[in-house]
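sorry for the late reply, my laptop died twice this morning and i had to redo everyting from scratch. anyway the thing you sent over, i finally got around to it. pasting the sequence first so we're on the same page, its 309 residues, then the predicted structure underneath. double check i copied it right bc i was rushing
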Amino acid sequence: MRLFLAILVLAWISAAPASAQAIDSGFVFGRDYTFERMEATRAVDDAQDKGTIRLVTYVYRPVKKDRHEVAVFSHGSTGGLARSPKEPGTNGIPPAVVQYLVTRGYTLVVPMRRGRGESTGTYVEECSVYTGECTVGDQVKLGERGIREALLDTNAVIDQLVLGRLAPRDAKLLLVGHSRGGFLSLILAGERPGLAKAVINFSGGWYGVTERLTASENQQRMDDHKVRLTRAAERAGVPTLWFYAARDPFYKDGVPQELRRYWQEAGGRAEFVYVAEHSMPNAHLALSDPKLWEAQADALLKAAETVKR
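ok and here's the structure:
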């Protein structure tokens, strides 16, 4: 009898409408979005890898209000190999950001760069100071190659999976990224003028600039940032949103404002949002709370409508 009652209860739960479920999600797979795993490829021939690498890419598509436009989200770093590039949870995108973009009608494309997550090949963007593999100075020396590799990976995904497939060949893309990925999105907008309609940069920077480093080490990193941001800003020509929060463990006070200044002094357009007062345990992950930035992001997307698709 008890078994019979249990079966009846389970049957009722399965048949109950969403409003009667224990968890009522406002963003549901199959009802609000679809998910697909795609792959791009890239030929490499260097000391680490020879042959073809696979760049696994996650694609979220809106079920409703499809704009038939694409947003490309670039992930961040591993914090100087503080975490393995293959570890689950280090390469993804916050669900809140997925929901924000997809519910506004964008097909969201999230590439995993070389050696990250399910993508093959060797991760070459960083080295580990923690294990004695390299020095703080060596990390900056890796910058040129790391950015070049990140651009090659992202461009492979855009050219093989996005343009002419997920979007028209001449489509304008919304470039979005977090941390190293936010910086990469700005650089990509300058490397490929005419590709982007706008850029959303969440806590972007290629290197950390913190109190743990010496003044000369930090200056070396800021100088490198300045050269790259200046060059990109001179060519990008699209509206950008920069979002940072105080007490970010990767940037000491004043660094986000200085990065923004480099961009604007070179002619770049930037809306800067800085959350000074908050209770977040990790300000670098502030993108996980859309209440802090969605109004400004909505305004940016509206302004970007003047950019021809």
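The two ends are 64 Å apart (CA to CA).
thats about all i looked at so far, will dig more tmrw
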